[in-house]
Design brief:
With 348 residues, the chain is of the alpha/beta class. It is 44% helix and 19% strand. It has 17 helices and 12 strands.
């Protein structure tokens, strides 16, 4: 099955509605003294952030109100989206300034027909076992055994990309599989009703399916080791990057602080993930093991936010073109220049 092609007009006309949103004005925020560094009260206005319920630093920043405390005169608006495809639609509609999307939807954003004016400014995580192919007990033990079976995944996501890569790497044809487009919150009920045989999805849905008797047979760690890595990335509109350096410096410091907490104080970070993602703290700590987290200095001071990521996005675009996920692969410079290390580099 091939990816359905999005038209630029339809996307830009659509208003991607978040699952929920909340904003904290000055009167509702915790005291600025709670900022881990000196708060910046020069920033005013509203910062619109699109996030997903993924166990990484973004939800730690949200739960601990780090941005609200460090930008006390600003209003921080958090908008929850089900998938990166929805986040990309929100950028197309101009309804968010910063957002989290996987490397596959981020590549679509940079490619025709969308060619959105966005920059990749952060790597929230390198995806590993936290995103996997889970199979109903007794259905199959490998990807070949799932031919003719129903596999759910959010189309256009990193999970979909990894699934298609795994099928291709096995020498099989995606047309021999019944792939259905389903958002994470739809997959668990479909599994419980017996409507699907397998799913390539991320936590917390992945862990929920395992609790219901599912068995993981492949993961995004496997596809990464085969040379097809996937990421959860931080995007910002190009205009926003140019006009709001103070906001993005505070945002990057907050993200880096959250990553340090995950690495050095996972118990505390897990408490925030538990609240935001809807899992226990023990489950949150287990999910940390399925992702690789990078400090700002590692992202900006090495090749992560540079040639490597630009090259990986180009390879993703070439694969998406073969699946009709995009209409054309942009020049290599588009993906290289679509990655901006200056925001991560602003973290002192």
């Amino acid at each position: 099955m091939k990816l359905s092609r999005w038209t630029a007009g339809a996307l830009l006309a659509a208003v991607a509605l978040p699952l929920s949103s909340c904003s904290l004005g000055e009167d509702e925020q915790a005291s600025a003294g709670d900022c881990p560094w000196k708060a910046d009260d020069s920033v005013t206005g509203t910062v619109r952030i699109g996030y997903q319920k993924i166990p990484n630093g973004d939800v730690v920043v949200k739960d601990q109100k780090i941005l609200e405390n460090c930008l006390p005169k600003a209003t921080i608006e958090w908008n929850n989206f089900a998938s990166g495809g929805d986040v990309v639609q929100a950028f197309g509609a101009g309804s968010i300034d910063i957002g989290l999307a996987g490397s596959s939807p981020s590549t679509k954003a940079l490619s025709a027909p969308l060619s959105l004016p966005v920059k990749v400014i952060w790597i929230h995580d390198v995806i590993g076992e936290a995103e996997s192919l889970v199979v109903r007990d007794g259905v199959a033990t490998d990807i070949e055994g799932l031919k003719g079976k129903t596999i759910a995944t959010p189309f256009g996501s990193t999970a979909h990309y990894s699934l298609l890569q795994a099928i291709a790497d096995a020498g099989e044809d995606p047309a021999d599989y019944k792939l259905i487009n389903s958002e994470p919150e739809q997959i668990a009920p479909a599994w419980a009703m017996g409507d699907i045989d397998a799913a390539w999805v991320w936590d917390p849905t992945l862990s929920e399916l395992e609790k219901q008797g599912g068995t993981v047979i492949l993961s995004s760690k496997d596809t990464a080791e085969a040379g097809k890595p996937t990421y959860d990335l931080g995007l910002a509109s190009t205009a926003y990057v140019e006009k709001n350096p103070a906001v993005l410096e505070a945002w990057a410091k907050a993200q880096d602080h959250a990553v340090q907490q995950i690495l050095d104080d996972p118990d505390k970070a897990a408490e925030s993930v538990a609240v935001e993602v809807g899992v226990s703290t023990e489950e949150a700590k287990k999910q940390f093991a399925g992702l690789t987290y990078l400090r700002a200095a590692d992202q900006a001071g090495t090749d992560w936010l540079g040639k490597k990521l630009g090259t990986d996005l180009l390879a993703t675009a070439q694969f998406l073109l073969a699946q009709d996920g995009i209409s054309a692969v942009a020049p290599a410079a588009t993906y290289r220049d679509g990655v901006d290390a200056t925001v991560a580099g602003s973290v002192g």
